[in-house]
Amino acid sequence: MPALKVFRSNKTNDLIRTSHETHHGVSSSAARDLFHYWTFASVSLFSLVSGYEDHSEVAGPVQPIVAMVGENITLPCHLKPSTDASSMVVEWSGPVLNPSFVYFWKNGHQHLVFIDPSYEGRMSLLINNLKHGDLSLNLIDVKLSDDGTYTCLVPQLGKSALVRLTVEMAELSSIPTQDPVGRTNFKGCRPVLSTWIPVMVFSTLLLTVFGVYLYK
């Protein structure tokens, strides 16, 4: 009888040990699968975020834009690569140190509330090009006060680009110069007053001699 009791005890222990090993194996396998899934999800999410960042650049020109007073010019800015920006907020701020904008685009149209009065009516976006990611700003009737660095900002992306505008005065056309007193220089014609003086002196002397001769 004792031998049978021992047999049953050993069998029970084997069953318990087998059950524990099986349960432990299942748990380990599930943990490994969960870890692999979490790792894959993390890498995928990181790749997605990185890809979003990589595809959200706001680019401007490398070289400054040079314009003459009175000209109409374009301040280039675009999304890189091209992305539809029609529904995005686009903010252009100028070189002046105040919270106003030179152009503010939101909800599909321009807002004039925060626009600097000196730029009102002189700035415009190429609206039809927004769907291609073109955020370039047109500026008409350039003034000396427009000189400076402009910021093209897309708040939704948290990205911006700087555009440097250099404004120069147009060269003055050549103006006819005036010679010293008594002389005028105009289109190659040079009437000189001093040339009349010898003629007048000579004429006076001639008349004097002729008059003396007649008097005798």
UniProtKB/TrEMBL annotation:
One of its GO terms (biological process) is T cell receptor signaling pathway. The keyword Transferase does not apply. GO terms for molecular function: signaling receptor binding. The chain crosses the membrane at residues 196-215. InterPro entries: Ig-like_dom (IPR007110), Ig-like_dom_sf (IPR036179), Ig-like_fold (IPR013783), Ig_sub (IPR003599), Ig_V-set (IPR013106), IgSF_BTN/MOG (IPR050504). Keywords: Disulfide bond, Glycoprotein, Immunoglobulin domain, Membrane, Signal, Transmembrane, Transmembrane helix. Residues 70-170 form the Ig-like domain. SMART domains: IG, IGv. It is found in: Membrane. The keyword Transmembrane applies. Its main location: membrane. GO terms for cellular component: external side of plasma membrane. This is Ig-like domain-containing protein.
